[in-house]
Amino acid sequence: MKFWAELRRRHVVRVAVVYLIAAWLMVQVAGALEPALGLPAWFDTLIVALLALCFPAAIVLAWAFELTPDGVKRAAPALSGPADSPLAPPGASSGAEHAAPILATGPDLHGVEGTRSIAVLPFVNMSPDPDQEYFSDGLSEELLNQLAQIEDLRVAARTSSFYFKGKDVDLREVASKLGVSHVLEGSVRKAGDRLRITAQLISAADGYHLWSQTYDRRLDDVFAIQDELARAVAEALSVTLGVGHTTAATGLTDDVETYELYLRGRASFNRSRPEDFARAAEFYGRAIARDPGFSRARAGLVHIHAWMPIFVPERRAEAEQAIAKAVAEGRARAPDNWSTHLASAVLHMQRHEWAGADDAFARAAERAPASVPERAEIRSMLLLNLGRVADALGILEASMSSDPLSVNRSWQVQFALDMLGRTEEAEEEYLRSLDLPGADAREELHHWALMRVWNGGDTSLIEARFDAFLKRQTVPTPWLADIRAVYDDRDAALAIIRAAHGDPANQDPTRLHFVAAYACHFGDAALALEAMRRALVDMRGVTTYSLWYPDMAVARRLPGFKDLVRDIGLADYWRQSGHWGDFCRPLGDDDFECA
Asked: By C-alpha distance, which of 452, 375, 385 is closest to 417?
């Protein structure tokens, strides 16, 4: 089986078939020409003999050489290892152990979309300094971004691919979980100003290498290596899959130090801890200062400051100022760049300028590369805020096809399903998400899972989920632990919630949303509406999506609810756009109702 797969990889079988067909045609032509031209009787026998003698030579040449866009080249071996490099560490493996088949059978991939797909696994950091891991991770991510520019090729998103980082799994599991047919893996060794990068493209169907290469370059060649590697993978894929050409990405940088700052920012942000937001913002800011045209760094900064008011409410004013600065700088330098439109959309959303946010997000989505995670994530956040939950769910589910292991996507999907009353589906997705990377640290994932089952009467499940939520609190809210102690005593719980509502320590949109959610749950809809008004009107909070949570239905029936949505601009947006969402509908020309 291994020998047969190698024959296929080197296209020997294809050459043999083509040769035999051509030989048969030549024999037929020789047979016809012999009597017509008066050639000797042994002429067609000579042709058959020559063709038979040349057949082994054709097979040998097919094994040894391959036809590429750059001409005829010696065929690559099954794998090229790093041991012969001056950068390779002492005792480094030659990589020969990877030459054996990884799988006996591939995943169950259906249709063209399944076969035209690839995942870029995190490249292994082989540098002497383990702190250089951000560089190998960053290189993997940038290769993923470049491959995402290839027409007709579906690329698994970064979050899902990085799920397998450091795990000893075979390709069957990778392909099954990500729904891909090919995997790119490799290693990076950085020593001083030298780089050694190895890469292998593997077919998940049979576990054999389709292509492999080793690069020894200077550090300032990293961008050229990325481009060369992406082109080589595209060419290898195009032979068997017929995928299109790579479209040019815009807004990149060619400055190595800027690029390293960006990678450090990505590494900090990807840890998904509030304490890392400021560090990531610092790296992104320094990268932008060096190269103001670097769109991905600007988009990363915008992404951080879009979430910071929620998870680090103490830095809300700083986040709003940073977004306003990003918009001003973007409009001055590149007014039609996708990162400028993205920043404008977030700024409009923070100011409750919903029509402007909707338009800016549409412009950003039209221009942003497919690999930009902010496209779906923040766009769906806006739609949830607007009450257009079904529209948001459609975007989230589509994005999950390329990012099935993203806990952030999963949480947003669960939230949308809960809002639409599809609680069984939300619960099923929650249980699936528990094994996703980062799930253990996500407060909101476990909080809304608690709210989902709270009215079900299963005491042990309620208590287990309450404890899971409190263990993972991102925004310190001590009074919630007091609620846990009396969660089955309505009067005692309401006394704690009312005290929390007036406590100066809770006067920010995030903590006031907790007040509103728990007040509704325990039956004080008026208090919930008052807390939401303070959070959304007085403090201009950005998470208006809390208005559409099932427990808030009792507050939506109060007369003051319509005044609230008018004061935050939602009613004007609904009427002007015609998109009333899933919870409200117009009544005549100047009134509406919400359910």
From this structure: 452
d(CA 120, CA 158): 8
Phi, psi (rounded to 5 degrees) for 199? -145, 145
Percentage helix, strand, coil, to 5, in the chain? 65, 10, 30
3-state secondary structure of 454: helix
Q: What is the pLDDT of residues 461-471, one digit of tens each?
A: 999 999 999 99
Which of the residue ranges 11-25, 157-171, 530-544 has the most confident prediction, judged by mean pLDDT? 530-544
- Side chain identity, residue 397: E
| 306-344 tens-digit pLDDT | 888 888 888 888 888 888 988 898 888 888 888 888 889
How much is the CA Rg of the chain, to the nearest whole Å? 30
Distance CA 483, CA 313 (A): 22
**Separation between Cα atoms, residue 291 and residue 275, nearest integer Å:** 26
Q: DSSP characters for 110-173?
A: -HHHHHSEEEEPPPEE-SSSGGGHHHHHHHHHHHHHHHTTBTT-EE--HHHHGGGTT----HHH
Of 103, 198, 119, 213, nearest to 164 (Cα)? 119
CA distance 192 to 124: 18
Cβ burial of 329 (10 Å; 0-12, 13-18, 19+) is: middle
Instruction: Measure the N-to-C terminal CA separation of the chain; round to a whole number of Å.
Output: 63
Evaluate whether 565 touches 594 at the Cβ level (below 8 Å). yes
Q: Encoding tokens for residue 259?
A: 């690029």
The count of other CB atoms within 10 Å of the CB of residue 84 is: 11
